[in-house]
Amino acid sequence: MTTTIDRAAPHALAPPVPARLSLTPPSALSGQLDGAWWPASRDLSIELVGLTLALDGVRGRITRVIVNPARWPVIPHKVPVAGHTVHVGWFTEQDPDKVILLCGTVARWDLLVVPPGTPTAGAARLMSAAAIPGSVLTAGALMSAEAVIGRIREAPGGDARSRGPDAQRREDAWESEGGACMSPYGHPIGGPSANVWR
User: Fold this and answer.
1) Is the separation of the CB atoms in 90 and 60 below 8 Å?
2) For residue 180, what is the DSSP state?
3) How far, in Å, CA of 64 to CA of 179, rounded?
4) Which residues 6+ apart lie within 8 Å of 19 measured at CB?
5) In what helix (H) or strand (E) does residue 85 lie, and over which residues does it extend?
6) What are phi and psi of 52, to 5 degrees?
7) C-beta separation of 114 from 6 below 8 A
8) What is the Cα–Cα distance from 168 to 75, expressed in whole angstroms?
């Protein structure tokens, strides 16, 4: 008996991973970003399914996604999503910390991409900052600001304690004052005022 293994089957059979998103609320204020996306991995063929399903229909059906190849080891040309195909392209000129989703010619989403391995507190800060209506901060500026306070680009295996007692004290103060879990509107992330946060 011969068995044929379809390499695409695990993606098709596995339920889509829910997207972790923070979106700007509906507003007349237009900013640099429409929110943030925190993927669980750098596998676009898996991660784009949950992202597309979460945003499909909000502004129109997602037809195309654009990324910078600096952050994604493999970029598939097409990703099947719930009965339609999303085309994936890349531009090296695009901010590497941003993903653009196009809804045909009708609308688009510009989202900060929070790196998959980011600690929860850092991801919450980034997702809140990216969802402020009318913000002029770019994805790169938000990532640079987070890197300055030592949250994203630490040495492998490093944590706040390995950076010294002053860094630990600042982080403890930030956490105890509600800095890591508050949205820019003063409500805990994931509470009734949250747009999308899973």
Assistant:
1) no
2) T
3) 35
4) 37, 39, 47, 50, 51, 53, 54, 55, 196, 198
5) strand 84-90
6) -65, -40
7) no
8) 38
Amino acid residing at 108? R
pLDDT in tens, the chain (198 residues): 443 333 444 444 456 667 899 999 887 678 999 999 999 999 999 999 999 999 988 888 999 999 999 999 999 999 999 889 999 999 999 999 999 999 988 889 999 999 999 999 899 999 999 999 999 999 999 999 998 876 444 444 444 444 455 555 655 555 555 444 444 444 344 433 334 443
DSSP designation for 39 = -
Distance between CA 21 and CA 84 in Å, rounded? 22
CA distance 188 to 84: 35
